[in-house]
Amino acid sequence: MRSFLPSLGVAGALTACLVSGSALAYATGQTGHSGKDSSLTCASSMCHSTTGTKPTVTLEGPASLEPGQTGTYALVITGGPGVRGGFNVATDGSATLTAGSGSKKVSGELTHTQPKAFTSGTVRFDFTLVAPSTGATLTLFGAGNSTNGNNEDTGDASNTATLKVKVGDGGGDGGGEDDGGGCAAAGGVPLLGAALLLLGARLRRRDA
């Protein structure tokens, strides 16, 4: 019994350290929680609680790009506990993301290198996206975490956002335009037939 009770005390202390340090575990960023997989977000990562006031998260940048063009984007976190913020951005398709200041790229996704302090209730993470070489419609996925800076998993909150980016023709096969041309061409056949019938009728009248 004597050896058992101290063991419980050690285990309890270790658990407390893990819990209190969970917010610090990913202070240098985490990927895989952008919301691209709806079951994996900052709220589900277990390193921050969801008890704080939710911030507003937006993705800013052009909604259309030409193939191969580079666009400048930003994930913006507004409100919430509003002391420090972190983020994770991912995209589907073959677009290439490039990290901006205070950010890094890990496994094709972007995240912060260190939590960034809010200024006037807002924190911003800039990045760029290079569009693929062919037409496509991409989706940017972003998660933003607004923390109270107490280095614990209490009182923080996060939110997610998405942004559709059309590249070139959006990946369409031009079927709509082909259909329009087909209708116009088909419409010309009856007109030609009517003209021939009218000419034939005139010729018959002359012969009569």
Automatic annotation (TrEMBL):
<protein>
    <recommendedName>
        <fullName>Lipoprotein</fullName>
    </recommendedName>
</protein>
<keyword id="KW-0732">Signal</keyword>
<feature type="signal peptide">
    <location>
        <begin position="1"/>
        <end position="25"/>
    </location>
</feature>
